[in-house]
Specification:
206 residues; mainly beta; Immunoglobulin-like; 2 domains; five-stranded mixed beta sheet; four-stranded antiparallel beta sheet; Methylamine utilization protein; signal; Cupredoxin
Length: 206
Amino acid sequence: MRNRALISILASLGAIVAATGALAAGEKHVSVQVVDQRGMPIRDAVVEIERPATSTGAFSFPWRNAMAQRNLAFTPGTLIVPRGSVVAFPNLDTVRHSIYSFSRAARFKFDLYGRDQSRTQRFDVSGTVALGCNIHDQMRGYVRVVNTPFAAKTDQNGIARVEGLGGGSYRVTIWHPQLRAPNNEQSEMLSAPASGQPVRAAVILR
């Protein structure tokens, strides 16, 4: 009986260790902090890590492929979507909007549509799609179309947490509408620690 009890305990401990290991593996991530030329954190910069050769197949992000118009602004102001995505543009304002883009990655225009109506657009080319409204000149929005599942936006501390990767050396692309570089983006190799602590990347803003 004692042997059976001991075997049962050891099996339970093994299951706990395996579950803990699986949890830890599922929590691995790479964090990148983006700062400007003064060392100040940059919010809403897009951080993309080149997809490893071992990562294949379709992917999606945990947020919705949607950009609303609310309070005369695009919400969110920057949206990251996989290439080939269909994005919804619901109007949550009491006024009508007409959305357009002259970007190389996508050229389109939605005629005026009102509250609680929506339009959709498919994005088949990777890159940045800058959006505007023909009625409200102050409205600016950006859809960043990516080829990698390893992408995220920076928070108020300038930190983007990219899930699913452990420590290592990666080619990282950073995009921001005010970044002073061709296509408002810069790429570099960064070495991320296995601890998940942020690795810093400095960019120059206009």
